[in-house]
Amino acid sequence: FTERLVDAGIDASIGATGNSYDNALAESINGLYKTELIKAQGPWRTVDQVEVATLEWVDWFNHRRLYEHCGDLPPTEYEALYYRDHRTQSVAEFSNS
Prior knowledge:
Elements: H1 2-7, H2 24-41, H3 47-63, H4 75-95
């Protein structure tokens, strides 16, 4: 499988055998999604209902959900702060060169 990806010029998003760290975040988010939305608000009657609810959940999760790991900020605010600080550091380092 990995060789076919390389031949096609695709970077694999998988690690070495027995390395579960690559998918840990995805599995955590999938678990939250299922617990907070799919199981809590089901049963679902149509795929369209699931799609709309999923889009609303992702928007809520990224923009309004307070995430303890991010200092009780929504992920988008935490990311914006990170890049603001990173750019500030990069500009300062460039100016001092």
